[in-house]
Amino acid sequence: MKAIIVKPPNPGAEVKDIELSQEVKPGQVRIKTLYTGICGTDRGIVSGKITFSRPQENASELILGHEAMGVVEEVGEGVERFKKGDLVVPVVRRGCGICLNCKIGRPDFCETGKFVEAGIRGLNGFMREEFVDDVMYLVRVPEPIKDIGMLTEPLSNVVKAVDEILNIQNRMIWTCGDSTYECRNALVVGSGPIGTFFSLLLRTNGFNVYLLNKRDPSPTEAYIAERMSTTFYNTTQGLEKLPSADVIVDTTGYPSAFLPLLKKFKKNAILVLFGTSSGDKVEIDADLVTFFVENNIAVVGSVNASKEHFREAVNYLTLWKEKYGSLVPRMITSMVSPENGPEVVSKKIPGEIKTVIKWS
Amino acid sequence: MKAIIVKPPNPGAEVKDIELSQEVKPGQVRIKTLYTGICGTDRGIVSGKITFSRPQENASELILGHEAMGVVEEVGEGVERFKKGDLVVPVVRRGCGICLNCKIGRPDFCETGKFVEAGIRGLNGFMREEFVDDVMYLVRVPEPIKDIGMLTEPLSNVVKAVDEILNIQNRMIWTCGDSTYECRNALVVGSGPIGTFFSLLLRTNGFNVYLLNKRDPSPTEAYIAERMSTTFYNTTQGLEKLPSADVIVDTTGYPSAFLPLLKKFKKNAILVLFGTSSGDKVEIDADLVTFFVENNIAVVGSVNASKEHFREAVNYLTLWKEKYGSLVPRMITSMVSPENGPEVVSKKIPGEIKTVIKWS
Amino acid sequence: MKAIIVKPPNPGAEVKDIELSQEVKPGQVRIKTLYTGICGTDRGIVSGKITFSRPQENASELILGHEAMGVVEEVGEGVERFKKGDLVVPVVRRGCGICLNCKIGRPDFCETGKFVEAGIRGLNGFMREEFVDDVMYLVRVPEPIKDIGMLTEPLSNVVKAVDEILNIQNRMIWTCGDSTYECRNALVVGSGPIGTFFSLLLRTNGFNVYLLNKRDPSPTEAYIAERMSTTFYNTTQGLEKLPSADVIVDTTGYPSAFLPLLKKFKKNAILVLFGTSSGDKVEIDADLVTFFVENNIAVVGSVNASKEHFREAVNYLTLWKEKYGSLVPRMITSMVSPENGPEVVSKKIPGEIKTVIKWS
Amino acid sequence: MKAIIVKPPNPGAEVKDIELSQEVKPGQVRIKTLYTGICGTDRGIVSGKITFSRPQENASELILGHEAMGVVEEVGEGVERFKKGDLVVPVVRRGCGICLNCKIGRPDFCETGKFVEAGIRGLNGFMREEFVDDVMYLVRVPEPIKDIGMLTEPLSNVVKAVDEILNIQNRMIWTCGDSTYECRNALVVGSGPIGTFFSLLLRTNGFNVYLLNKRDPSPTEAYIAERMSTTFYNTTQGLEKLPSADVIVDTTGYPSAFLPLLKKFKKNAILVLFGTSSGDKVEIDADLVTFFVENNIAVVGSVNASKEHFREAVNYLTLWKEKYGSLVPRMITSMVSPENGPEVVSKKIPGEIKTVIKWS
């Protein structure tokens, strides 16, 4: 079957016809891949910049792809939860089996680092015509979101990060006088798919959201921002018109992008670090530390998601489909064939929010 | 009566005979001051470096002092909780009455900043022979810790900070396989009274603790470290011999002191910012941000304490008195008369851990 | 305008033309009522069995109705959150302003009992052509659920109760090895609208749900149960075929209905009491107490909901509309005119799940 | 060596000279038993009433005893945490290794029931001259509480139960306006060692405590109650003089003892079931269910404790020794030799609070 493969740590990606006849064992199902999404991690692997990527043990190539949706084709012995025709999304990280967090199903908090991640490190991914997986790693997707279900994985990471915000802020009363979060302001730095999902999710939780970039919005971005009642803010105009902030989410990884915003922080605020990059340098001083102390400021880095977060992501996509109609579908700005996969995974398409490969 | 007064924002402190005849209203008690401790905040006010200090409304002078213990002398109408002769410690911060956190008794999380703090801003402190206070601001101290009860206030802030650690780390399984914290390592930067209290409290919670300074310990520090089964670590020897860390607590406020330690962090670790200073500058880069993201690292600044934390601090002092005997009493390295207050509040005594003024 | 009024504690209800010219003050909006639902509490008031019902202060009559949806007609000064044409649902209970829970927006946990409840005690309800309310008591409803938005109130109480389950069970690891609740079984006693909502909500949270009644399902009930992948179970066949239970929810109020089920409890299970009734008596013994102790069993009674629960209820209705299509709309088994209100509020319609009055 | 053995399910106990030469393997220590306490469970086993008691696999006898303190005599290879001469208390329950709660060190919440309990079921207990145990099951006790350290086990179960109270009540604001629990009233039913420990622990957490029995206090009980500022209340005088209650703790297991007290419940209150018994029967009705619903009442059964609770119990004993002097030591009303063990384990000593066997 066709697959998109990489040879980390070497750069490059190719479409290849592979033979990978996988038997469906008890407790497993065979899944025909429908769509796979492309994200920065895929591009980091293909460019050779992500150095932790590696093939499965004893293999020289890795099948790329960790954002996927497929349809169940064949059901193994003893499987009751799924039947032929069900739409499913696979989880990415599979735990080490050693640390307590992995034992309770939270490999996103793995302590040993001995996990594998499909399409990233140590486990083949989903950019191929079909794959076999254990049912414990699969999440069901309802029919009405068949067109956007492949966005479950990126959204799941955002669901986990917002979970972190709410868990951590539970250290005090952070809800408003009417029990909602409607008095809280969130600034989201970066307007790609992750920034958009943070905005949607925080908005759904009641927050007032400002989506920040250092340029004006594209027409699609402007539509999305208005449809979900958020403000798209061009930071090159200065920060004066931004409100004071209870949450700042960085999706860029550039300290120079989010550090100047910290002066907008209210007391007891929280900074969420989600984006990763390299190279950028900034100076911090003792006054910033004092500011964090005097105002009970929290910071949290957040990575990955549990299966429960995938389930919740599916529910949010379903809710948003009913509430916002074409908003989320419009985030998929390009749909390409597997043959064009190596090209789009190597280079961003102009105006892209999310590029998706259609497998069947 | 005698009092130590300051005129913020001007530097300087003096002993003065003041007339401040306070009536004991219903719900109040009159307290004879026994001891007041001196801390960095007092010295910052006296040096003029702390710019937020201010007298009570309509006053030109502020009575200094926020670490106090006294004995109840006179009990107002309707007071049932205290009787003459009871030892008490007053809380420092009194809430704004507006924000939700203040309404539920958590002014340490005040959102408006419209609180007052005895001896610091907007409310006279306790460096005087007696004071009158509402019972709701008083915490009882048992007789056996009469000699160390004035340490309740500094400890209360540490109790709150450790509360923050445990609350925030609840985002995952952070206890060990035997339900304790005995597999967790904490590095505490700075070996003053605050660093010592962090070490004692984390130790009491089961953590393995390393107390860090850029010099060898004084004999008293060496005694204290050994007595509580912690390691005093001189960082000038390099960081190689330190274990990997689940918690780093900074009590110095200098980013150059704690940033190099972050390379010791394990996954899911937490950095607690408690110390404040100024001037120090360091460079951070995008790789540090990526490290925080990939490893779910949290940071929290912590300030002040609630009355419940004062109560718990009293319990910890009592426990440590029984368990460690003279350890905590030995933290009081000097006891001076009020007349010497202005001098010791202006300048640190060599070898000082905690200097205390004895009022009667 | 037309209104349905009662004179508690006397039985009876009537449609009456009332004059109640309410001005729209700053921060308020005028709402044209679209629909009001009828529930057991309304019927308890009309039958005279609910003894705590009372008119507003200085009034002799009470306007009935607490399950409502309307459309904003007029917006008061300073109102930014709503505009003409917005669909809204009002919350029912308004806090005492004294206890801490009411101060932070959680009157569902009021400690003093000095709250009022629209249409129930001390505050006129929504069974009238229009009403004026403060924006802080209003929750927005999106257009796509205009036909079912009046179900927000009953669902909000279920959202709070499930919140209680998850909060309380946090005392241990209660999620399954894959981080979801898919290994947990819930038995819901009673198949009315509340039982149906508990089933839907627990199902959406991953639980396996059994909906229990002492008869076979009606065709509509059978459809609903199958559509949401739950099992409708007739308890007259004995309890043998029921699985062991992690949650039992009683919506009947009859101890004789839920007590026999407790033998199905697994360790660490929880019983939720939601239904209220009277008259029924059963005997319990020390062995039941021992069973609760040895197995860490919890019980919680749950009443009312916060505004945040109303918001979440709106989101669930939206999600279910997309996912299950006509399932929730089919719960509305009758739609009557205000003139027929007194009749349907006095007597259940055969086959009724939810009866709704259409106001415009 | 001498040991007290039982042959469950048969009644009876005897002192016997057993040969049980246990080697000290790596990670283990040999412990010389100093004291073992006697509790209701021991007596239930000896009377034959507790039917779940059983010997270790392939054994016909069980060594009794689960409340113990000893001193380390010999240290196995690789043991760093303990050294010869250290005082230690062993935990009782050892997990199933299968369920998630046991995997994270919380066998007190074991889901499978496949745990063993030293001296109770499936594992020999500590009523013998010495025993060998893994260090992971041992908790260190400081010298100053050598005389009361054997009370750690019963207290640990109370610590867990109070943990349950505070965890569950976190569902709302339950702290008072000053952040403490000083406005909350607790009624503790039963004045044995468990009732006394509940009173001490709730008192230490700030609660106002009433210790209830259906008789006047013994002189020792009167002393203890006064010393810890609680009220000993004889319920035969009626309940009128009791205050309304936020917590009721039952330590008797008799529903007829605690059910009449429920009329004292405030809104949002919690009933803790800790005692177990049999035979007693009472009638409850639908009005009680309605009361639970309308007032958000919670109930929780609590059994056993984690190792962390043992650690905290040691800290509380140490604190109370300093604060209350001889209060806790006076709870040990008799100290007997092993030879007298079978007699005292068969029958309560008049005036007994806690009877202890001294082994060396």
TrEMBL record, chains A, B, C, D:
Required cofactor names: Zn(2+)
Family: Belongs to the zinc-containing alcohol dehydrogenase family. Glucose 1-dehydrogenase subfamily.
Any single biological process term in GO: protein tetramerization
Main function: Catalyzes the NAD(P)(+)-dependent oxidation of D-glucose to D-gluconate via gluconolactone. Can utilize both NAD(+) and NADP(+) as electron acceptor. Is involved in the degradation of glucose through a non-phosphorylative variant of the Entner-Doudoroff pathway.
Residue ranges annotated for the Alcohol dehydrogenase-like N-terminal domain, each copy included: 25-143
PANTHER family for the chain: L-THREONINE 3-DEHYDROGENASE
Pfam family, one: Glu_dehyd_C
Binding of substrate, residues: T41, E117, E153, N157, N304
Catalytic activity: D-glucose + NAD(+) = D-glucono-1,5-lactone + NADH + H(+); D-glucose + NADP(+) = D-glucono-1,5-lactone + NADPH + H(+)
Occurrences of domain Glucose dehydrogenase C-terminal (ranges): 147-358
Keywords: Carbohydrate metabolism, Metal-binding, NAD, NADP, Nucleotide-binding, Oxidoreductase, Zinc
HAMAP family (UniProt xref): Glucose_DH
Residues annotated to bind NADP(+): S191, G192, P193, I194, N213, K214, R215, F274, G275, T276, S302, V303, N304, K348
Matches recorded under InterPro entries: ADH-like_N (IPR013154), ADH_Zn_CS (IPR002328), Glc_1-DH_arc (IPR026583), Glu_dehyd_C (IPR031640), GroES-like_sf (IPR011032), NAD(P)-bd_dom_sf (IPR036291), Zn_alcohol_dh (IPR050129)
Gene3D superfamilies tied to this protein: Medium-chain alcohol dehydrogenases, catalytic domain, NAD(P)-binding Rossmann-like Domain
GO MF terms held by the record: D-glucose binding; glucose 1-dehydrogenase (NAD+) activity; glucose 1-dehydrogenase (NADP+) activity; NAD+ binding; NADP+ binding; zinc ion binding
Name of this protein: Glucose 1-dehydrogenase
EC number: 1.1.1.47
